[in-house]
Structures are given as structure tokens and as C-alpha cells.
Design brief:
The complex is a heterodimer of chains A (306) and B (264).
Chain A: H1 3-27, H2 45-72, H3 84-93, H4 95-132, H5 134-149, H6 152-163, H7 167-191, H8 195-203, H9 208-245, H10 253-262, H11 266-295
Helix pairs in contact in A: 3-4, 3-11, 4-5, 4-7, 4-9, 4-10, 4-11, 5-7, 6-7, 7-9, 9-10, 9-11, 10-11
Chain B: E1 25-33, E2 39-48, E3 53-57, H1 64-72, E4 79-84, E5 89-92, H2 104-114, H3 119-132, H4 148-160, E6 166-170, H5 178-195, E7 198-203, H6 206-212, E8 215-219, E9 226-231, H7 246-263
Helix pairs in contact in B: 2-3, 2-4, 3-4, 6-7
Classes of the chains: A mainly alpha (306), B alpha/beta (264).
């Protein structure tokens, strides 16, 4: 075949592909191709209406419980649930209390992030090791599941005696409760690589390391990030719960929460609770964004927006 | 206009007389029994010469795909020998098996990357083969942004980068719609002529087999072996209209008969 003829064929192929792409473009709604970088979906007012309404209902219910519900439904004193504006005023508008609160938020954030980082290192390390050898996987699973099931409360005296009743023990609690989803998700991701893709690497004589770095880890990224997201939320809980037991050292939200509770300082207690909730939400949102940054360009989620 | 003259290494050409060249792939009384006792293949022998396009058709589960796995070394035969240069082997799977996190360009470079080809060299080769399969302009796209046909083209390009002398195809177009499949058949023949590899192709479709091949082998039910051998005399390049010619229908009928005999 002459070069000119080959060239012609190349061009014919190209135009065939353009047709194919056009057909595809017609089949899919605009903006649907390549979600991620090249998709810019402008938010409309209706995207905000739902959240605004639920927030309104939430605050309304809160007021309702304070002014009517507690007394008439449960026959209890209204002070048990402080009205929202008072919580805001006494916890956050008062300058002295605000700095205590924000410092507590910072301490808890720090502890939970350190715990999470350690859990990620240990969890991914374990999962990678377990993915290499079936016997290791079978030997380690029971302990990981057990770690999930054991109540931290029971371990408090042991942990405290060994590691002290300060920050390191709090970090350990974070690690214990957040390591499981990381191991489980990473391992699941590493092991669910398509058979054909493995064959491809086998045919080129790839070693374990190459297979891990160029095939298994990238393929597992979406599930790994889903695990991080769950673990991050758990780590926040771990930091708060840890503070309730290990009170020495810097005062985080858990310590504040417990102090306000014991003094019947309800407005401040609700203030600290709000910060716990916001920290949990922030961590969830941030890890969602990290995940989209890392895999959003190529990973197809069933949900197109969000 | 696409120039292919800048990639002379990809073109082995058809100038030599094929019959005088030694076979590129030889199965010699190859046998396969799986560890669970399933006998997949009874002793089977045939060979594929450079520039020959051999297609195997047969009932489901007759061991067609096993042949490819034995040829590539993904499986080891329990009897007989396979002779082939595994370093110049291309393998196109049923699924495109593209890595979702890599762009078209990076997917096409993959095998070269795994084989330690330098960055500039594999980039040059990838660009050449992307042009060859007509994917130019899509280098930066991710697999999820491609249609089924384009994914298969990308998969082909990935193997072509290694300049294989033997190409194994495991029902590569089985999942595509009829129109896309026929178009890819036409294009595959274009590549086959230009690059001049030896092809061993597995398919369920008799028409695809007859249209593509120089030789069609029919396998019997498991444990499979060759029970029919048809030479397909149509010269290349083959026009897409060949599919509507009487002689084509006649040959397809003969293959179909042999296949039906296999099912009985």
C-alpha cells in the first residue's frame, strides 16, 4: 500500500472517530462529558433552597423545644435545651469564652489530624502487606475486626497507665478507632483490580513493586479516599472521646464539653457541641474535596453532581 | 493528511513471500488440563506465519481463549510445546483493560514504560501509533470519556507500540455494536497490511472470521481441538463490500456447517 493511500485511510479513520464522538455527544446531555476539570456546573438558586429550608426547620425545632416542647411534651425544665441565640451569645460573642472555645477547637483538630495521619500510615501499610500475601490477610483480619468491637472505655486504664493521661493517649484513641476503615477500604481497593489489567502487567513481567505502584494503588485511590473520609470523621470522635478520659494537658473540645456538663453550663456546652459538629462537617467536606482533586478527573461516580 | 512515513519501524511490509518465512507462532500437540481436572484442550497443532491472519471460531468454552493464554505464557500447557517470541507479542483482550487514571497518551505508553523504554522514545512511539489508529486529538482524554470503539482503538495502539510480530486477539470487538465492529474490522485489516504482523484472532462471529482471515480454524466442543480448517482466498486489501458477495456467503456457510457439526 502506498503512503498516500495510508494517509487517506488515516484521515478516513479520523473522520469516523469524529462522527463517533459527535454521536456520543448527542447521546449525553451537555456538560456530562468529562465531569471534573472541564465541567463547570453553575449552581442555581434551587441548589440552596433545600439546605436553607432544612436549616430553618432545624433551628425552629430547637426554639420550639426550648419554649414549648420540653415543658408540654416531656414535662421537663426548658433550661435543658438552651435557646440558640443564647448559646451563640454566651459561647462565641463573649470574647473570653470565645477564645477558650476556639483554642479547644484547635487542640481537638490537632489531635485528630495527628491521629488520622498515624492511622493512615499504619492502615495503608497493613493493607499493602495484606494484599501481598493471603496468609497475612487471613491472620490479621480477626484482630482488626476485634479492634473495632472492643469498647475504648474498657482500655482507658491500660492506655492511661502505659501512655499517660495526656495528649499521646488521646492520639492513640484516634488511631484505634479510625484505622479499621482505612485498612478495609485500601485492601478492598488493592484487591479489586480487574483481572485483565493484572494480565497486562504479568505479560510484561512486572514485579510486585511496579504492580503496586502503577496498577493497584492508583486503581484503589477512589476507595482509599472514601476510607479516609470515614476515618477522618471517626478520628474527630476519637479525639473528643479521648479528651473526656485523658484530661491532663491542653484543653480540647471534649474537656470543655465535660467541664460545662458537670457545671450545668448548658449554653457553653451546646456551644462546644456546635464546634464538634462543625469540625466533623469540615473534615468530611475537606476530604471530599481532596478526593475529587485526586481522582475526580478520571473516576466515574454514579452521581454526576456533588 | 496523516503521514505514516515518519514511523518506518512500524511497517514490516508484505513484500516478502510469506510462505518461505518460518512460522511466528507454533502450537505442537498442545494440551491443557486445569488443576480442577477440567480438560480444556486435547492435543492441538497448528502454526501462524508472519503476514498470516488466522482466526479460531468455536462453541463457548471450547478452549479458544485458552489457546491465547498458552501462547502468551499466562497459562502453562500441561502437554506439548508452544514456540513464539514472547518479547514481540501483542495481546488484545476482550475488554479494553485501559487504566482509568491514565490519559489515552499515557495508556498507549504503558507497555513501553513497563519494558523500560525511555520517556522520549515511548512518547514518540505512542504519538505514531495514536495516529495510526486514528485517535489523534484524543491524547489527553480519559477512558471514561471515550466510546467503546475508541477504547478498543486505544487498546490496539497500546499493543502496537511494542511493534509486535505476533498479535493475539481475544474477541476484542465482541462487546461492540455491529456498525462499530465492522468499521473496526476494516481498520484492523488496514493495520494488518501496513504493519504485517502474524495474527491469531478469536471470535464468535463467523462473518468477522471470514472477513478478516487468511485462514479460519473451527474448534470442537470441550476438550477442544481443530476440527475444520478453511483457507480464505480473498486478496487484501478487502473492500467492506466483500461481505455481500456470493463467494463470501458460500465460505461463511461452510464454516457455519463445520461449527454446527461441532455443536451436535
Amino acid at each position: 500500500m502506498s503512503i498516500a493511500a495510508s494517509g487517506l485511510q488515516g484521515e478516513a479513520m479520523q473522520s469516523a472517530i469524529n462522527r463517533e464522538d459527535q454521536r456520543r455527544a448527542e447521546d449525553t446531555p451537555p456538560g456530562d462529558i468529562g465531569s471534573g476539570t472541564d465541567k463547570v456546573r453553575t449552581r442555581t438558586i434551587s441548589d440552596y433552597i433545600g439546605p436553607v429550608i432544612t436549616f430553618g426547620i432545624f433551628v425552629g425545632l430547637w426554639y420550639f423545644m426550648h419554649y414549648w416542647g420540653l415543658e408540654h411534651i416531656f414535662d421537663k425544665k426548658p433550661f435543658l435545651i438552651t435557646e440558640p441565640h443564647r448559646v451563640i451569645r454566651e459561647s462565641f460573642i463573649d470574647a473570653g469564652q470565645r477564645s477558650v472555645m476556639l483554642n479547644g477547637l484547635w487542640v481537638t483538630t490537632k489531635v485528630s489530624l495527628i491521629g488520622l495521619a498515624i492511622a493512615i500510615a499504619i492502615g495503608m501499610g497493613l493493607a499493602i502487606a495484606m494484599a501481598q500475601a493471603r496468609w497475612l490477610e487471613r491472620s490479621l483480619w480477626p484482630y482488626l475486626v476485634a479492634l473495632q468491637a472492643i469498647p475504648i472505655l474498657a482500655l482507658v486504664p491500660v492506655i492511661g497507665s502505659i501512655f499517660g493521661f495526656e495528649v499521646p493517649s488521646r492520639v492513640l484513641v484516634c488511631v484505634i478507632i479510625s484505622v479499621f476503615p482505612i485498612v478495609a477500604n485500601t485492601l478492598f481497593g488493592l484487591l479489586s483490580v480487574e483481572r485483565g489489567q493484572h494480565d497486562l502487567f504479568t505479560l510484561r513481567g512486572a514485579n510486585r513493586w511496579t504492580r503496586l505502584v502503577k496498577l493497584q494503588l492508583p486503581a484503589a485511590m477512589p476507595t482509599i479516599f472514601a476510607g479516609f473520609r470515614i476515618a477522618a470523621g471517626l478520628s474527630v470522635i476519637g479525639a473528643i472521646v479521648g479528651e473526656i478520659f485523658f484530661k491532663r494537658g491542653e484543653k480540647g473540645l471534649g474537656i470543655l464539653l465535660d467541664t460545662f456538663r458537670s457545671r450545668l453550663n448548658n449554653p457553653e456546652m451546646y456551644g462546644a457541641l456546635i464546634l464538634c459538629a462543625l469540625l466533623g462537617i469540615a473534615v468530611f467536606v475537606i476530604f471530599g474535596m481532596l478526593s475529587r482533586l485526586a481522582v475526580g478527573r478520571w473516576y466515574e461516580t454514579t452521581r454526576k453532581t456533588g | 493528511m496523516t503521514e505514516i512515513s515518519d514511523s518506518p519501524s512500524l511497517v514490516h511490509g508484505h513484500s516478502e513471500d510469506q510462505s518461505t518465512r518460518p512460522p511466528a507462532l507454533v502450537f505442537d500437540r498442545i494440551e491443557m488440563t486445569f488443576p480442577d481436572g477440567t480438560r480444556a484442550l486435547q492435543p492441538t497443532s497448528f502454526s501462524v506465519r508472519p503476514g498470516e491472519f488466522t482466526t479460531v471460531v468455536g462453541p463457548s468454552g471450547c478452549g479458544k481463549s485458552t489457546l491465547l493464554k498458552l501462547a502468551s505464557g499466562l497459562l502453562n500447557a500441561t502437554g506439548g510445546t508452544v514456540t513464539v517470541d514472547r518479547d514481540s507479542l501483542g495481546y488484545v483482550f476482550q475488554d479494553a483493560t485501559l487504566l482509568q487514571w491514565r490519559t489515552v497518551q499515557k495508556n498507549v505508553e504503558l507497555l513501553a514504560e513497563l519494558s523500560g523504554v525511555s520517556r522520549t522514545e515511548r512518547r514518540r512511539r505512542a504519538t505514531d501509533t495514536i495516529n495510526l489508529v486514528g485517535l489523534q486529538g484524543f491524547e489527553g482524554k480519559y477512558p471514561k470519556q471515550l466510546s467503546g470503539g475508541m477504547k478498543m482503538r486505544c487498546s490496539l495502539a497500546r499493543s502496537l507500540v511494542m511493534e509486535p510480530e505476533v498479535f493475539l486477539f481475544d474477541e476484542p470487538f465482541g462487546a461492540l455494536d455491529e456498525i462499530t465492529r465492522e468499521r473496526l474490522n476494516d481498520e484492523l485489516l488496514g493495520l494488518f497490511q501496513r504493519v504485517g504482523f502474524a495474527a491469531l484472532f478469536i471470535t464468535h462471529s463467523i462473518y468477522e472470521a471470514v472477513f478478516l482471515s487468511t485462514r479460519v480454524l473451527v474448534m470442537g466442543p470441550r476438550p477442544g481441538t481443530i476440527i475444520g480448517d478453511f483457507a480464505i482466498p480473498f486478496p487484501y486489501p478487502r473492500s467492506p463490500d466483500l461481505r455481500f458477495e456470493a463467494e463470501f456467503a458460500e465460505l461463511s456457510g461452510q464454516v457455519s456447517h463445520a461449527l454446527r457439526g461441532a455443536h451436535a
